[in-house]
Design a protein that fits this description.
The complex is a heterodimer of chains A (about 280) and B (about 260). Chain A folds into two domains: about 45 residues, no CATH class; about 210 residues, MetI-like (MetI-like fold). Helix content of chain A is about 75%, strand content about 0%. Chain A has eleven helices and two strands, in the order ββααααααααααα. Chain A has a two-stranded antiparallel sheet. In chain A, β1 and β2 form a beta hairpin. The radius of gyration of chain A is 24 Å and the shape is flat. Chain B has ten helices and no strands. With about 260 residues, chain B is mainly α. Chain B has one domain: MetI-like fold (Orthogonal Bundle). At the A-B interface, α2, α5, α6, α9 and α10 of A face α1, α4, α5, α8 and α9 of B.
């Protein structure tokens, strides 16, 4: 029996007889079938040359990735390019979250800070981070600085916004409890505000991470000598679709792995977050 | 009115500070350009940007189109991608939330494609569609469909189980429950997706126009960089921000109208 707030759900395990209909409706069977069909259609589309030579066959992509692991490309192997992109993200992401999260918390806790920063933030918020690429290149040239700058710009907004909203949306009852127990303002902030805002901050970090990937790829597409964005743009210039799709597969894997890492960190740092499982 | 409006008086300083902060921001920006602290090839002052804004309504040079044409092209592309994303994403998400077979079949594919940022599709899309408008729409569509699917899926999943059990008791079929209970209760989440998807589409627009384009606000920015004209870059950025805000307000208005009859 699962008890979430005031809703009570009963979990009943049914053992139905194994019939064809039951197999066809089994979730794992469907997942497998769908994955197989996806690759089969992909392969068929590649063989039929629907996009002329623009779509490689799945095994060609795997082969290309295997080759790139050992043969250096523009001086770096595949792992080197992965590290180049990851490094940019880590630097930009760390700087942005170290500045934006405290600033967001300060804005939510102090209305004078809020009055000064909020209007500026509202002014800069609607501009998509990718729109900053050109100005970043004008300012910092095409080196590492401009890439890190774009990542900072892109990740700053969700980090700040979620930290800010996280504190503002803390349930007032929680404050009442601390006040009733004789807590001071300091206790309110440290005992209630921060722990209650943590899940929201982590949600912001998750969003920021996916934006960071967009930003770093866009920056690398415009100008770079290394990184995963460089691999796919090189694949395009050499008209080797296998390289492009291979790059995309690696990006998907790494982005997925990083977001799993942040989720794991969240479970570790704030175990009090209520998991609402509505299955 | 049954309730009396309570007016909380904000101190004068709190109302003054936002104005001061905006003035200080633009003042500093203007001054660092005027005193040439940064070279004029790197940053244009607000007044220069405003001047260019006025001139661009009637002057096609140096990028080959009027400001209104750039805006119109961008809005067209963004809306085509956005509407396609809504048309495909919302029904798919709703069906994924209720029908086990649809969920089982589409989920793995969706999860495989989701972590790829829309920007990464650009080179492949150039192979597939060339550099015309269809490629741009495809990229905007890819970006917009993810929030549509997730929100409508979550909306159906969050349906109060009691309602479903009640309908089952009264002998409703699966399809009836889906149509008459799940969809209405998912609507607020679906409408939430409208805003999120719009923001995604608008961001991806710039990415889409990073690949070859000859018109559009993203193109204006790229052109400004290539010609080393910071005022043009800034004008493009500001116009993208402004247009995004205006479209957001319009969508918000329709959302309010549509949601007026739904009890939250």
């Amino acid at each position: 029996m699962v008890d979430i707030a005031n809703e009570i759900k009963l979990q009943v395990t049914e053992r139905s007889p194994l019939t064809l209909a039951a197999v066809l409706k089994n979730r794992w069977f469907l997942y497998g079938a769908s994955t197989l069909t996806f690759f089969w259609i992909w392969d068929a589309a590649a063989v039929a040359r629907i996009f002329s030579s623009g779509l490689p066959r799945p095994h060609e992509v795997a082969l290309q990735l295997w080759r790139m692991l050992f043969d250096p490309l523009a001086g770096k192997s595949l792992l080197g390019h992965i590290w180049a992109s990851t490094q940019r993200i880590l630097i930009g992401f760390t700087i942005a979250s170290l500045v934006a999260v405290p600033l967001g918390l300060a804005m939510a806790l102090n209305r004078y800070v809020n009055a000064v920063v909020k209007p500026l933030f509202d002014l800069l918020k609607p501009m998509p981070p990718l729109a900053w690429i050109s100005i970043a290149i004008l300012w910092f040239g095409i080196g590492e600085t401009s890439k890190v700058f774009i990542i900072i710009i892109g990740t700053f907004v969700p980090c700040l916004l979620d930290a800010y909203n996280g504190v503002r949306l803390v349930e007032p009852e929680l404050y009442d409890v601390v006040r009733m127990l004789g807590g001071k303002r300091r206790d309110e902030i440290i005992q209630v505000c921060f722990p209650a805002a943590f899940p929201a901050i982590f949600a912001g970090l998750q969003i920021a991470l996916s934006i960071a990937w967009s930003c770093v790829l866009a920056a690398e597409l415009v100008s770079a000598r290394s990184g995963l964005g460089f691999i796919i743009i090189l694949g395009m210039n050499l008209s080797r679709p296998a390289m492009v799709v291979g790059g995309m597969v690696v990006i998907a894997l790494i982005a997925w792995a990083m977001s799993q890492l942040v989720s794991a960190l969240e479970r570790f740092v704030c175990p009090w977050k209520r998991e609402i499982d509505n299955r | 009115m049954a309730y009396e409006q309570v007016k909380v008086k904000t101190p004068f300083i709190l109302r003054l500070l936002p104005v001061l902060s905006i003035i200080a921001f633009f003042g500093t920006w203007q001054l660092i350009v005027d005193w040439e602290i940064v070279p004029s090839t790197m940053l244009a002052s607000p007044s220069q940007v405003f001047q260019l804004f006025l001139v661009k309504w009637t002057e096609v040079n140096p990028d080959g189109a009027l400001l209104s044409q750039h805006i119109w092209t961008s809005v067209q592309e963004a809306f085509a991608g956005y509407l396609l994303a809504l048309l495909v994403g919302i029904p798919l998400g709703l069906a994924m939330g209720w029908f086990v077979v649809v969920e089982g079949l589409s989920r793995p594919i969706f999860e495989m494609i989701r972590p790829i940022p829309p920007v990464a599709w650009i080179p492949l899309v150039i192979f597939w569609f060339g550099i015309g408008i269809s490629g741009k729409i495809f990229i905007i569509w890819i970006g917009g469909i993810v929030p549509c699917v997730i929100n409508s899926y979550e909306g159906v999943r969050m349906t109060n189980p009691t309602l479903i059990q009640m309908a089952r008791t009264y002998g409703a079929t699966d399809w009836q429950i889906f149509r008459q209970i799940c969809i209405p209760s998912a609507l607020p989440m679906v409408f939430g997706a409208l805003q999120i998807a719009l923001a995604c589409c608008w961001t991806n627009l710039v990415a889409a126009e990073l690949l070859a384009a000859d018109r559009g606000l993203g193109f204006l920015i790229t052109m400004g960089r290539k010609l080393a004209l910071p005022d043009m870059v800034l004008l493009g950025m500001i116009m993208i921000g402004l247009t995004g805000v205006v479209i957001g307000i319009i969508i918000n208005y329709f959302e309010k109208k549509l949601l007026a009859g739904i009890r939250r």
